[in-house]
Amino acid sequence: MTKPLALTIGEPAGIGPDITFAAWLRRTELDLPAFYLLADASFVARRIERMGLRVSTAAVTPAEAPAAFKDALPVVDLGMTTTAQAGHPDLSSAPAALAAIRRGVNDVCTGSARAIVTNPVAKSVLYRSGFSEPGHTEYLAALAQQFCGVAARPAMMLWSPELAVVPVTIHVPLREALARLSMELIVETGRIVTRDLQQRFGIARPRLAVTGVNPHAGEDGALGEEDAKVVRPAVQQLRRDGIEARGPLPADSLFHAAARATYDVVLAMYHDQALIPIKTLAFDHAVNVTLGLPFVRTSPDHGTAFDIAGSGKADPTSLIAAIRLAARLSGPSATAGLRVANERH
Q1: How far apart are CA 38 and CA 24, in angstroms?
Q2: What is the fold of 163-281?
Q3: 74 preceded by a cis bond (ω within 30 of 0)
Q4: Is 218 left (phi over 0), alpha (psi -120 to 50) or beta?
Q5: What is the domain partition of the chain in residue ranges?
Q6: pTM of full prediction above 0.85
Q7: HSE-up (13 A, CA, CB side) for residue 169
Q8: Would you say the CATH fold of 163-281 matches that of 1-154+291-336?
Q9: What are 51-76's pLDDT values in tens digits?
Q10: Residue 2: per-residue pLDDT
Q11: Domain 1-154+291-336 class?
Q12: Which of 67, 155, 163, 251 has the fewest CB atoms lying closer than 10 Å?
């Protein structure tokens, strides 16, 4: 029997539990792969009852999850009490979210799960608990070292059938992002992206479009020197590596339909340069994929939505897309037929 996906609870006060229930309820209709939820089982039962849902649960081990999945939502209990109410994180929120991530990575590293799908966390809640990593992506890299024994340098890709983007700098203020940006960082990111697009997505020769930093990619130095001194040399190095990369390209003309047909992924220089276009084109179904890890990790491309948590209004579309993509990337023929460019048409 195919191994299940490990699904983390995320921020328990957010919509992670809600969209997990909604996805499981559509398991037969959508022919979803088996997954299990990493959480406090009593918390899950209380949330289901308060939402008035017809969802049965089964306390399982990962190995038991596929057999249980048809009739009940499999829950692997974390052995810790979670008291957060919908929309109201408390002192139990961060420990629950982090314990689920740690267990999920351990499960995938030990072969109990085929991939990990993470529900949204609230970074502000984690930071108040003393969490020291910049975000989910960096934490996963640290856990890969701990549980898999692999030193990973991750890259965050937002993927949808319409567009795939990778921000070279991620969760830092814009001023700091520009200070951190370097030729070496762009080249390293481009190599990671190329390798994972080849090995996981099955694209033999990925086409990378690399944005400029400044308006009009610097306008030949008239609008800043970073594009000529940092981005262009990085693109030249990637090309010397045999990677099909173009840039620096003006970001304002890179995301219309005709332009998107010319590349497989965009390397953007900072967070919003990448995320604004994909959230405009694919707000409800984009998937966060962490590249550069020794395992497959996906996540919905949205936040915790405290304002609607527990109401039954949360849309599970992005989580369902994340579950499906995780299964495809980690399947026995993971790369067969999976082409980012082809899925745009």
Answers
A1: 14
A2: Isopropylmalate Dehydrogenase (3.40.718)
A3: no
A4: left
A5: 1-154+291-336, 163-281
A6: yes
A7: 19
A8: yes
A9: 999 999 999 999 999 999 999 999 99
A10: 87
A11: alpha beta
A12: 67
